[in-house]
Specification:
The structure holds 2 protein chains of 2 kinds. Chain A is of the alpha/beta class. Helices cover 28% and strands 20% of the residues of chain A. Chain B has 2 domains: 54 residues, 3-methyladenine DNA Glycosylase II, Chain A, domain 3 (Orthogonal Bundle); 183 residues, Alpha-Beta Plaits (2-Layer Sandwich), CATH 3.30.70. The chains are: A alpha/beta, B alpha+beta.
């Protein structure tokens, strides 16, 4: 069985909510749709206060090449356009819509039938994906159409669908594979057509045997699609790690993943691509998990983008008493929620409750140069050294030691026996070094 | 005996020859350096703080000799050093107002309650990269002391009671290191003012009034009362936040009395009834029928905050 070759760790294999079917979350009374739901330039609102909007209507237009449009996830009246705090309590330009009924745009195909025939051609597929605001749902929310328009020098050879879901607790991708397997594979086929390649791998970790079985049974119907079972290891779902695991090629330092010929898309993205291209449905819904050891419910939801997290928490029986920390995303790379009224985004994958014992940081002691972090780093860096250099502010040396290659997976902090917050300092250094590198005149 | 003379003579001639070679090489490859650079450097404070924008005192001296003193100022040495440098270089400099770092946040532990708990690296930069901070104010001081670490003159300390850094006016040289270290840009270099008297808005919250007030009892709510009452047009309100231009402010203190949240601070001012100096003293006195207007909103303060349970 394949896996990536360098580093990696094995966090607890917990998928408590994996058997909970995806439920449709009721639409709240108010939704708050952020204009910055994707990597790159935030969208610009194109509706005014008082306007009536329908489900799927464009309410934010992209502002730049790396940007994506934003669609209304509900029907109703625009109540306000202004700053609303996100889950890190940072103000973000947001459109507030009061929900009235559930009236969809007429051109969205709402039938449950699976459309298998791909009618659009290469160029139209990319255009449709762009117009539907599809972004990468693996975490980084990078606009998908940009990934499907690689630079002319790059020669894509295959699509890799990321079904690794290597983070503990998260089960949204798993549920998508279990409940919408054909749609995912059609999505993969669409992506192949958009890139003009003939091969599509679906990488799934071995801790999801049912998903591997289900997709393997369906795969022969789709020429070029191959299911690749992967050994369980974190961070297998990282783009560079998945490419290494599936096609045995390393992304060069400072290079693009497409330099290896692979274009990686998440399972959720493949499903969103299917819906956009075959059903003309923009990305305004997402699958998310509510879970955690102390969580009152273990459920998977199809939520409308812009639903306040607090609404979902209430719906699941409220915040458990012994929850010390709420995380949106996985426990390894997710973000702590400091504002429970923050709305969900396109890329929101979970609400995860952690107990005090799970989140408590242990006191830091001295580095004994055991080298565990070096062995765990999937990018082949030396985290202990980067930490030292970062604390001393030695920017040149940090650059020489490739701090910019860090993918912020947290394997080093996870594995450190001295509980040194390696990632925290490296992340700081990385940001500072990247800033310096960007400010240099280009040759 | 001959051997000794021969040896000494050989060594002497050899030494002489080598000295000549060395001299020629030194002449040929000598690096021309303006001697004035050394003179200027000797006049500098030698703190190498980088407050002037140069890499250190030597770099300042080089720049001063080569490019002139027009865009240079040594905040540590101040006007005295600049005057000496100007004399040494035969140039003229205009005296600058001495400055001091001022913290534009007054949300202490009581006024600005913590709603979340941060656990991790004790650095403002790290906290700021993760989220808005432990309180509900996304603009306020995080209190982890990056400014303290940045200060080379030991002029900033975190006050345990308020949780906010305090600048020691005596020690602060206005080098500006703290202004660059603060991720929330809370520290600002402002003119020290006559006798160290200053009036400034101790807040940077750009949220709308109600939101700001909910997060912090002493936040600037952007009501604009201060701008209206200011006779010198020194106050501008932009993005729900007032700012006092220290070059225009004449320290009449009307705004301090007017501010409903107490976000405007006065420093080193004499007690109120005693000194009323500006020419337009009569309307000022009327406005200063003071504590009363300041006290009313004080009562309001208690009812407005609805602290959310975590």
């Amino acid at each position: 069985m394949r896996t990536f070759r360098m580093g990696g760790v094995h966090p607890a294999d917990k998928k408590i909510s994996k058997d909970a079917q995806i439920e449709k979350l009721p639409v709240p009374k108010m939704v708050y749709i952020s204009m910055a739901q994707h990597l790159g330039a935030p969208a610009a609102p194109c509706v005014a206060v008082g306007d009536k909007v329908k489900v799927g209507q464009v309410i934010g237009t992209p502002t730049g090449f790396v940007s994506a449009p934003v669609h209304s996830s509900v029907s109703g009246t625009v109540k306000a356009i202004g700053m609303v705090n996100d889950l890190a309590k940072r103000p973000v330009n947001t459109i507030t819509i009061e929900v009235e009924g559930d009236e969809w745009m007429e051109d969205i195909d709402r039938t449950p039938d699976i459309v298998r025939e791909i009618k659009l051609d290469k160029k139209d597929i990319v255009e449709r994906i762009k117009a539907c605001g599809v972004v990468g749902l693996g975490g980084a929310t990078f606009p998908t159409n940009v990934k499907l328009s690689p630079p002319p020098t790059a020669k894509p050879t295959c699509v890799i669908i990321n079904g690794a879901e290597c983070e503990p607790y998260l089960t949204s991708d798993y549920r998508v594979m279990m409940e919408m397997p054909e749609q995912v594979l059609i999505g993969g086929t669409i992506l192949m057509k958009a890139l003009g390649v003939g091969k599509c791998y679906v990488g799934i970790e071995e801790n999801k045997p049912e998903a591997i079985k289900k997709l393997s049974a369906l795969a022969p119907k789709y020429p070029g699609v191959e299911i690749v079972p992967l050994k369980k290891k974190y961070p297998q779902g990282g783009e560079k790690q998945l490419i290494d695991a599936v096609i045995r090629k390393r992304v060069p330092s400072m290079g693009l993943p497409v330099d290896t010929g692979a274009v990686v898309q998440n399972v959720g993205t493949a499903f969103a691509v299917y819906e956009a291209v075959q059903k003309n449905k923009p990305l305004f819904e997402g699958v998310m998990t509510v879970t955690g050891d102390c969580s009152k419910a273990q459920r998977n939801f199809l939520h409308r983008v812009g639903t306040p997290l607090s609404y979902i928490m209430e719906y699941c029986g409220g915040i458990p008493e012994d929850a010390a920390k709420i995380i949106s995303g996985g426990p390894m790379m997710g973000k702590a929620v400091s504002n429970i009224d923050a709305p969900t985004l396109k890329g929101t994958s979970s609400i995860l409750y952690m107990t005090e014992a799970q989140t408590k940081r242990k006191p830091e002691s001295n580095c004994i140069r055991c080298g565990k972090c070096v062995g765990a780093c999937p990018m082949g860096l030396e985290p202990y050294l980067l930490n030292k250099l970062g604390r001393a502010g030695m920017m040149d040396e940090l650059e020489q030691h490739h701090v910019y290659d860090c993918i912020e997976c947290g394997c080093c902090s996870f594995t450190c026996p001295a509980y040194i917050p390696l990632l925290d300092t490296i992340r700081q250094s990385k940001a500072a070094v990247m800033k310096i590198m960007k400010s240099r005149p280009k040759k | 005996m001959n051997t000794i003379i021969f040896t000494v003579a050989t060594l002497a001639i050899l030494g002489l020859l080598l000295a000549i070679v060395l001299y020629i090489v030194a002449q040929k490859f000598k690096v021309e350096e303006d001697p004035r650079i050394d003179i200027v450097e000797s006049l500098m404070p030698g703190a190498n703080c980088g407050g002037c924008g140069k890499a250190g005192c030597r770099a300042f001296a080089e720049s001063a000799v080569k490019e002139g003193l027009d865009n240079l100022f040594c905040p540590v040495g101040g006007n005295a050093v600049m005057q000496k440098v100007a004399e040494a270089l035969g140039q003229k400099v205009e005296a600058k107002e001495p400055q001091v770092a001022v913290l534009r946040c007054n949300g202490n532990c009581e006024k600005r309650k913590k709603t979340t708990r941060y656990e991790g690296v004790a650095s403002c930069a790290t906290v700021a990269s993760l989220y808005a901070g432990e309180t509900d104010c996304a603009f306020g001081c995080l209190g982890y002391g990056d400014c303290v670490a940045a200060c080379k003159f030991d002029a900033i300390r975190i006050n345990e009671k308020t949780g906010l850094p305090e600048v020691d006016e005596e020690k602060c040289t206005a080098c500006g290191a703290c202004t660059r270290a603060c991720p929330k840009l809370l520290l600002e270099l402002r003119n020290k003012g006559p006798k160290g008297r200053r009036v400034f808005v101790a807040c940077r919250n750009k949220d709308k009034g109600a939101v700001a007030r909910k997060a912090c009892l002493s936040a600037c709510i952007g009501c604009g009362k201060c701008a209206k009452v200011c006779p010198f047009e020194a106050i501008t309100v932009e993005n729900n936040l007032a700012y006092i231009d220290f070059t225009k402010c004449r320290m009449c203190r009307k705004c301090v009395a007017e501010c409903p949240t107490g976000a405007i601070h006065e420093v080193n001012m004499p007690p109120r009834p005693a000194a009323v100096k500006p020419a337009a003293a009569t309307p000022a006195a009327a406005a200063q029928a003071k504590p009363a207007p300041a006290a009313k909103p004080e009562e309001k303060k208690v009812e407005i905050p609805v602290q959310k349970s975590e």
